[in-house]
Task: inverse folding
C-alpha cells in the first residue's frame, strides 16, 4: 500500500473500516469510506505538503505517519474531534490519508448511541470528526496496524469503487489548490464540501 499519497487515497476510498464488537455492545461497526483527503511529506520528502502534519518533520506527535504504511494515525482537532488517518508512504517517508466521511453499513444502533439523536443515517459519519466519534476511535488507537486481520480496527481494501470525483482539500489554509480530496460520486454520506470539482 506504500505509494504516492494520492494513489494511496484512491486505494482507501471505497474500502471498509471495521471496529470490533468489544467496543459496541457486542456488535461490530462497519462503514464504507466514501470521502478521503491525501496529505504529503516534509519539505525534504518526495511530496512536500505544507498542509500536512508531517511538514515540520518527525515529532513524537506525528511519528506514526512516517511509516510503515497501513497504520492508523489519530489526532485531536481543535481539542474536540478525533480524526482518523491511514499512513501511506514508504517506511520513513511521512504521508497519510485522512478519512473524511463514511457510510455506516453495520452496527448503526451502536453508532446512534455515540452521535446526537435524530440524525439521518447518511450524516452519522459524514465529516472527519463525526467519523471518529461514530466508529468509537480513541487516541489509544494511534499506531494500530489496520491491515492486520487480528487488529481491533481493520481496513479491508475495496475491489471496486465506482465513479470517483476530486477537488481541493477543505479546512486548511495552505496548499489549498491541490485536488487531493476524493469522494465516491453520488454517495449520500459524502460531506457537503463538494464545490470546485476538478476532475473525474
Result:
Amino acid at each position: 500500500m506504500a505509494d504516492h499519497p494520492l494513489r494511496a487515497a484512491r486505494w482507501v476510498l471505497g474500502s471498509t473500516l471495521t471496529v470490533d464488537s468489544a467496543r459496541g455492545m457486542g456488535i461490530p461497526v462497519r462503514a464504507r469510506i466514501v470521502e478521503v483527503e491525501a496529505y504529503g511529506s516534509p519539505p525534504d520528502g518526495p511530496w512536500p505538503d505544507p498542509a500536512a502534519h508531517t511538514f515540520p518533520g518527525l515529532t513524537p506527535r506525528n511519528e506514526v505517519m512516517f511509516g510503515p504504511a497501513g497504520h492508523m494515525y489519530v489526532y485531536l482537532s481543535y481539542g474536540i474531534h478525533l480524526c482518523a488517518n491511514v499512513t501511506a508512504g514508504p517506511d520513513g517517508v511521512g504521508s497519510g490519508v485522512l478519512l473524511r466521511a463514511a457510510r455506516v453499513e453495520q452496527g448503526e444502533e451502536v453508532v446512534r448511541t455515540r452521535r446526537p439523536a435524530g440524525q439521518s443515517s447518511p450524516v452519522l459519519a459524514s465529516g472527519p470528526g463525526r467519523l471518529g466519534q461514530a466508529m468509537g476511535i480513541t487516541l489509544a488507537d494511534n499506531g494500530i496496524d489496520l491491515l492486520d486481520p487480528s487488529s481491533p480496527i481493520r481496513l479491508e481494501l475495496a475491489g471496486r469503487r465506482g465513479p470517483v470525483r476530486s477537488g481541493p482539500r477543505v479546512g486548511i489554509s495552505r496548499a489549498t489548490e491541490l485536488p487531493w480530496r476524493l469522494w465516491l460520486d453520488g454517495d449520500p454520506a459524502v460531506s457537503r464540501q463538494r464545490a470546485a470539482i476538478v476532475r473525474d
Observations:
- The longest helix spans residues 5-12.
- Strands lie at 16-19, 29-39, 72-77, 81-87, 96-106, 153-156, 164-167, 181-184.
